[in-house]
Amino acid sequence: MTQVPALRLSKIVKSYGQLTVMHGVDLEISEGEFVVFVGPSGCGKSTLLRLIAGLDDPSSGEIEVAGKRVNGIPASERGLSMVFQSYALYPHMTVRANLSFGLENMRMDRAEIARRVNHAATLLQIDPLMDRRPGQLSGGQRQRVAIGRAIVREPKIFLFDEPLSNLDAELRVQMRVEISALHAELGNTMIYVTHDQVEAMTMADRIVVLRAGRIEQVGRPLDLYNHPANRFVAGFIGAPQMNFLGGVIAAGGGLTLDCGGTKQVRFDEAVPAGARVTVGIRPETIEVSLDGQGELTGTVTGFEQLGSVTYIYTALPNGEKLTMQLAAQVPLTRGQSIGITLPLAHTHVFLDADGRALRMAGGHR
Amino acid sequence: MAGVMRFLTRTAGGQDGRRIGVTDVLAYGYLILGVLLILVPVSWTFLSSVKPREAIEAFDTRLLPLDQIEAEVDGRGLRPLYAWDDPRTEGQPVVKVGPTRALTDVARIDRPEEVLQAPRGELVALEEVRIATENYLDPILQRGGQRNFAFFRYLGNTVFVTVVATLITLLINSMAAFALSKYEFRGRMTFTLLIVATLLIPSTIILVSLFFVVWSMGIFGSLWGVIIPAAATPTGVFLLRQYMLTIPDELLEAARMDAASEWKIYWRIVLPLSLPALSVLAILSVIWRWNDFLWPLIVLISDPTRHTLQIGLTAFSGEFSSSTHYILAMTVVSLIPVTLVFVYLQRFITTGIATTGLK
User: Fold this and answer.
1) Residue A365 in domain
2) Cα-atom radius of gyration of chain A, to the nearest Å?
């Protein structure tokens, strides 16, 4: 069964004068999906969202919502609603007026407006606040009102532009859960922009990693985590960050690490000997031996004991740094030498020339 | 009351530090100077406006409105009274019964037929404090021969000009400011600078050309000839534009997502949020239009039924004499509405800051 995608972007280019910020983005989002656009600041994720919303027009390329081309159609007629980073609540209106403003503009029946507003208020538990103004609300309450304003329009797609970045850490976790629950309840398509990869990992059905106006990789959170397509995605997804060690492809297969030691790996493709590569290893896959047994020896430069996990920061003899994550509590002292073993199974190899991941033969891929 | 006193006696040291330092002396000195600069002319005008005509014309600079006591003297009518320290008066006031000379003929009020000779320098005017309400009531009620000053008609004209001109000013200036602050278009900055640059041109320079424009539009001699040319002000456009720049664009985008038309965005979002700046402009516009003299004089001079208060005041200045007491009294009356408008609108200037909806 071929379903019409909720949103289809093809060859989206956006330029401001001489400066091109989107370089031909293609993307399809299915009905009911929760998609997160993630990337560092300036990667174009907010620009892309604004293009979808209709607040900006692409320089070229097509935008389709539910199979209908919407280029040039005003934002209000695309059937989308957006939650802004600053919430953008109308400060001179009560919460109720904020929620109903858009519906009134669409000349909707009064009873229907009241029904939708009350429904959203109940859903978001903001009914006691309906007659207050945004200035009298806390950050979390404003956030709910902003989401409520998006809900009452019953849009085809919800757009969220970094909605949690103004909240404190505790509230952010709570709202994250609530937005996910809301998605489960409403079942609408949602596009969520964030620079926080934790939000992306926890909320998304699919993650779109963007960098400098290009899509780096699209995939389910764990696919991105386990099989990053390139060094950028590998470094961006996951906390603490993946470790990167320099290396060279040895003649006759295998690779030599700059910090000493060789790895017997074979690739699906022909890789010229002597090519510079970067080896990526997740912090939690590294084996640590406190009595110094291992293929490498590192000096502990720092550590963090969080109880359930321990982060160990070490320096290798050649100056490269390695972070390790242990799911246990271990006794450590600064300056201590520990043995390190890099597991072959969880190693990623990226070609330095273009940063892409090399497929490993018989590996985990 | 205690709060007001605490506010008025605040020092740089804060609440607990009651010490008065150099900063406090300088700050209070400067503020008191400012208060005096503004208050003294107004108070002087008010105090003078309740003085009797004679006191005004004699350049009586005493603060209190002192009027010479008059009394009915048999066969001589109402006469001003004098005190003369002489045994023959037996403490009775006297009135002059002849022209004032070195030795003036005076008579006691209880014996008017008995003429005495008093040295001019020894006669002291007998005075009492009297509020000269006639300064106000004569022109307003058209008593005392003040038929040329149609107070209520002038007031009506002035109110009409002020209210209509202010409303139009607020409307079109805010529309221009909205476009200049929230829309991206080629030449936006050029237009803004052009509008602001017109501040450099004194209004007297364009008087003649403005006259021809108003004449050719057929509104010369009507109140609209005063209202229309004054409606667009560079100050207003600039003031509102700078304020609207501080309204976040995200609010407008949210409204666009909410299917609001551009007019609705202007009317329901931008205007209410610009209330503080609009109040400032409203105050300025009311003061400008209310006190406007030169341009209304040119446009409306030929038709006395269309005069504004400020033109009307010139009726008291004749070629040979000026009724300064009436001018002062009517000036005070004309100050009252502007003051009330200011008191009412100044609250809005501060409230806008408190009602921010963004984080």
Assistant:
1) no
2) 24
